[in-house]
Write a structure and sequence with these properties.
This protein has about 475 residues and is an alpha/beta fold. The protein is about 20% helix and about 45% strand. The chain is built from six helices and 35 strands. α1 runs antiparallel to α2 and α2 runs antiparallel to α3.
Length: about 475
């Protein structure tokens, strides 16, 4: 029997070609990140297509291959797994090799660390200088203080084979503080050292409280506090901790173990990739664009938030309470809408929210507990998952609930009408004169129930809460 060709390979090639074509029209699409993050889906698609092809041939009575997967295909599968797993581990925040300099060679293997002290270096500047920390490798702690002096101190660690080599590297890399009118440049000169010598410069910097700060780094942490001006931090790999800032904050990191902003009066703009993200007591608007794969904690945000990640898009008016996002879960309590949430495979819990919400999730359960009255409009959709809605007993609303494959459990009672259709169910009706509540589940159960009578509070209380949000000093 002559073997028949397979359509699996051509279809996979078409899919890959479509991805690269999209990238050609949308250069901002990070195709590399898509591939190393979602490469398992390529194997799943391959297997599904091959299974459907064999099934079709069996039903049609056509010849089928003796082996489901050829030897060459197995080799390609193993290669994809090795490359995909390696790429994921390399890009994963916190991976040990991220902090390893592979090019240091002999010095890294056999060298010793030599410490040198820095400063203190002191310069008199204006009360509102623009401080620039040029690209360097190391940690920087920047603190605002009263007065018109800038002070720089710290220590330098040089890894070298002998003390002579370390001394030469130290002499080539002095820390300079250059005052050019209102601009102050802090330069570590690490690029002047031998490429085989690793130099880490840790700085303690005191600047006038009215300063603005612009800092760039290759690797190392930034700890910034007590400034009245704007803060702009850019780094390839850094943990960033910012607190007590009256100006705007902008952070752009390629990799980060943590980004933490606390007590900021201005707007916060975060971009890049990292692990944990914490924002607390932010008085200005917040924009987050990037992928943070650890724990995301958002508390006491007084202005609108816009979160645009690879798998999650989230917009909300205010967060006087808390939003916490972990891998596979989204929990929000005490937020003020309008709220829009679009995410991938995530279980969602919204409690104590006000105003309208729009929630859409591909796969995941949704638990809604609007404890305040009056209710806002709700549009909630999950392709696969259960939806539970718990409302105060005195709530007024008009509901339209539909599940294509599953049951509806009406524990609220009232004049709501329920009927079954094929594999699904519908629940429709009104309780008083209230907003529309639209619940849809492609595959799952929908439950509507009454909450405890003590849970209901009015929006007047919410307004009072927002006026009491702590503001940055």
């Amino acid at each position: 029997m002559r073997p028949r060709g397979s359509i699996t390979g051509p279809i996979i090639l078409i899919l890959i070609g479509i991805v690269f074509l999209i990238h050609a029209f949308m250069p901002n699409l990070h195709i590399g990140e898509l591939l190393w993050l979602y490469w398992p889906y390529l194997l799943i698609a391959w297997g599904v297509i091959a299974f459907l092809e064999v099934t079709y041939r069996t039903v049609a009575g056509a010849p089928i291959p003796a082996n489901g997967v050829s030897g060459g295909a197995w080799f390609l599968i193993i290669l994809i797994c090795i490359v995909g797993f390696t790429a994921y581990e390399i890009h994963r925040p916190g991976a040990w090799w991220v902090n390893t300099d592979w090019g240091r060679g002999f010095n890294e293997a056999f060298g010793e660390e030599h410490d040198y002290s820095i400063g203190p270096i002191q310069k008199t500047v204006i009360a509102t200088p623009h401080v620039i920390i040029e690209a360097f490798h190391g940690d920087a702690r920047v603190v605002g203080a009263d007065g018109t002096q800038i002070s720089v101190s710290g220590h330098k660690t040089i890894r070298a084979v002998d003390a002579g080599q370390a001394d030469r590297a130290n002499s080539r890399t002095p820390v300079d503080v250059i005052v050019q009118g209102a601009t102050v440049i802090i330069r570590c000169n690490q690029d002047k050292a031998d490429s085989r010598t690793r130099i880490t410069t840790d700085l303690d910097i005191s600047v006038p409280r009215g300063a603005t700060l612009e800092a760039t780094g290759n690797r190392g942490d930034f700890d910034i506090s007590a400034l009245n001006g704007n803060v702009d931090v850019t780094s390839a790999n850094a943990g960033v901790r910012i607190q007590d800032v009256n100006g705007d904050v902008k952070v752009d990191v390629d990799r980060s173990d943590v980004v933490r902003c606390t007590n900021v009066n201005g707007a916060v703009d975060l971009r890049g990739h990292g692990s944990d993200l914490e924002l607390t007591k932010i008085a200005g608007q917040v924009a987050i664009n990037g992928e943070f794969r650890g724990t995301i904690s958002l508390r006491e945000l007084s202005k609108p938030l816009r979160f645009a990640g690879m798998r999650t898009h989230f917009d909300v008016q205010q967060i006087p309470g808390e939003v916490r996002m972990d891998r596979g879960s989204f929990n929000a309590e005490g937020v003020i809408g309008p709220l829009k949430l679009n995410t991938h495979a995530t279980d969602i819990t919204l409690a104590g929210f006000t105003n309208a919400i729009e929630v859409s999730v591909d796969r995941g359960d949704i638990d809604l507990r609007p404890e305040r009255l009056p209710l806002g409009a709700m549009t909630v959709h999950t392709n696969a998952g259960n939806i539970e809605l718990t409302v105060p007993p005195s709530a007024q609303f008009a509901i339209a609930a539909t599940t294509n494959h599953g049951d509806i459990d009406n524990q609220f009672g009232g004049d709501l009408k329920q009927r079954s259709e094929k594999l699904g169910s519908q629940l429709n009706g009104s309780v008083g004169s209230g907003p529309e509540v639209d619940l849809t589940s492609g595959r799952g159960t929908i439950t509507v129930r009454k909450g405890n009578s003590g849970e209901a509070t009015s929006t007047v209380a919410v307004s009072a809460l927002t006026t009491q949000l702590p503001q940055a000093q």
